[in-house]
């Protein structure tokens, strides 16, 4: 079981209404993406971080490490946003390349910082949902929303099979490291190629074994999982509604102030 699943199953909010938690997280996400405000994104990032650390059994250091993954991806993805091409030197920074200049403008820097902050706040909303809600509960919520059953089953199988492949990849990598398969760059590249080739073969074998086991358990085209419906309390519904209303009011205020 992956750490995400362990944290979700041990969360004190695991038995809260899935629909309520989804409305809370997705509503916050939509407001964050729609407004793209520094203030709103900062509030959402701080609030979701506090709630996730408090109610998901994830420590602050672990949550910080989890946020570093998307942050690194965002930094690499927004480098091009920070710079522009101009015919003359301008902005905060400029580097001459032939007759053109690579410049960093104040506007592009602010736009890139806003993009990173909004993206991190959006990721924090998703972290809150997946670290307080188990996958069977999420799938049950999608079923109640009448999402096509084929899409739900594909999501379930892909999600579970990712864990199988990760376990196999970690086992192969550990075995290679024990045999000094990463002592230099050349052997590391060769070990990576061997790991991917072995992983592909194991994936084909495990998928065939998975289908055989499903057939042996009278699989007839649909995966049926026992779930428990947990209705939300009226007090919780009112609190979420009040929170989303207040956040929306703050978002409208920031939008009227020019995207503060």
From TrEMBL:
One Pfam family per UniProt: CbiQ
Superkingdom per UniProt: Bacteria
Membrane topology category: Multi-pass membrane protein
Record's protein name: Cobalt ECF transporter T component CbiQ
Species the sequence originates in: Anaerovorax odorimutans
KW Membrane (keyword) present: yes
Subcellular localization(s) per the UniProt record: Cell membrane
Bilayer-crossing regions: 66-87, 108-130, 150-175, 187-205, 237-256
PANTHER family (UniProt xref): COBALT TRANSPORT PROTEIN CBIQ
Keywords from the named record: Cell membrane, Membrane, Transmembrane, Transmembrane helix
InterPro entries reported in the protein's UniProt record: ABC/ECF_trnsptr_transmembrane (IPR003339), Cobalt_transport_CbiQ (IPR052770), ECF_CbiQ (IPR012809)
